[in-house]
C-alpha cells in the first residue's frame, strides 16, 4: 500500500491523526521536497522534529529521486506499506497525479490522506473561494526570458516590422496576464502562486555537462508586483494597475503568517519577510468580503 | 481566544494534531452543524466518538444558535479559550467570515486551524485544481421555484409575449447555468456543489408562525444531473448535454468514497449511495488528467 499523506501548511503538528497513524504503520517513509518547501523542512532541526513526532526515519525525495526512482518506491509499496509525505494536500497546487497513475498501472493500492493546501487556506483573507477564477503562476523573469503569450509575440513582431502567422486553436490564451484579465472581466478574484526555484540545475553547469544547482529562490510579493506592473506597462491593456486592490499573504498557516490588503503600489513597500509568499488580485466584492479586507488593510 | 478548527472531510481522526491540541486546551467546545454534515456528526455514535477522542463535551451549534448566540459564544471567548469546530476547512466552501468579523469587532483574538475541504480534496479525481473555473451551487428545484437568471427571465417574457426592461450593470450573470457555460468556453472544469437542506423551517410551519423543520435532504448526483439537463433543455444554449463528460464524487475523504467518471447520461444510472455528493463537469484536459479519468471511467 502507498499512502500519500498531506502534511498541511504549518509545521509537523499539522498532520492529521489519520495521517499520523498511517505514517506510524509504514515500514518506509519518504517526504517530497521538490514542489514546495516547509520552514520545518528547510530549518536545521525541522526534519528531526518530524522524525521524532512520527517515530520514523524519513528519506527526503527530491525531484530527481521521484522521477528517477518512482518505480523503486512503488516496488517497495507493492511489498509493504510506504508513506509518501507531501506538503499541503496531495492534490493541491501541484498534483501528484503522475505517481498515482504509475501506481495504478502497477496495481499498487493507493490511499490519499487529505490536508489543507494553499488552494483552500487562501480563504483566510476573507475573499470567498467560489468567487475565484482560474489560478495563475507567476514565473521569475530572466534577462533572456519574458512572458510569451500570443499577444506579446504579435506586439513584438509588429515592433520589429515582422509578419505574424496565427494558427487557430480551440484552446484559450494561456499567459498569466490573460488569465488575470479574464478573471477581472468576470469580476472574479485571482490567486497568484509565486515562483519557487529549488534544485534548479544552473545554466552554466548544464553547458559543462554536469549538474550543479542554483541556490533556492522564492519569489517575494514585491518582485511579483514589479513583474506584473512591468508586463502591464508593456501591454497596456489595463488588466490591472498600480491602484488595483490586492492581498499579500506570507507563510500562510504558520504561526507568524502575515496578511496585508492594499493597492499594488502600497504592497510594493511592505516587507513580508520569509517565504512562502502568494498574492491575490481582488475582483468584485461582497460586503462581508469588504469587512474582512478592512481588517487587513494598510491604515 | 476563539479557535476556529477545521475537522477535514472524513471522521474524528481527520483533525490535525495542532487542532487537537487546541481543542484539548479549550474550556468550551462547539461544533457547527449547519453548513455541512459529517457521517460522524450524523451517525448515532459520531459525536460521542469525537468527545472521547478529544476528551471534551461538545455542544452542537446549529444555524439558529450561531446566528442568535454568536455574541454569547464570543463573550465566552473573551474570557477563556473556546473552540468552534467546523467540517472541512474554516474558509472552505462556506466561509465563517461573519463570525470572524464579529470577533474582530469585539477585539476577541481568533486563531484559524486549517484542514482539507471539498475545494482542494476534489483534486483527487485527477483534474488539476488550477484548471477549475468558478464553482457553482446547484439548488433543489421546487414546484414553485426554478432557476432565475436574466436569460431565463427574458426567454419566459418572450414566451409570454411580454416586454423586458434590462437594467445594465457591470456585474456578470450569475446563475449556475451561465457559470458552467462560461467555464466551458474557457476550457475550464466546473465543480458543482449540491444542495444540502438541514433544519429548514417548513413552509407550512412558517405560515402557522411556529418553527417546525423539514427532514434533512441532500441532493444526489442523479438529481443534480436531471435538473441540469432540464435547464439545458429549456434554454438550449448547449452549455452541456447528455454526452458531456463529468466526474461524480460521493463521500469524498471517507473510507468508502466513490469516484466515477462518465457522461451525464451514464452517471444518471449510477447509485452513489449515502451523501454527501458533488459533481465535476470536465473542461479541456491534459494527458495526465486523461489517464487519471480513465481509472475512474465506467468500463
TrEMBL record, chains A, B:
GO terms for biological process: methylation; protein histidyl modification to diphthamide. GO terms for molecular function: diphthine methyl ester synthase activity. The lineage of its organism: Eukaryota, Viridiplantae, Streptophyta, Embryophyta, Tracheophyta. Residues 1-180 form the Tetrapyrrole methylase domain. This is diphthine methyl ester synthase. HAMAP family: Diphthine_synth (MF_01084). CDD domains: DHP5_DphB. It comes from Dendrobium chrysotoxum (Orchid). Pathway: Protein modification; peptidyl-diphthamide biosynthesis.
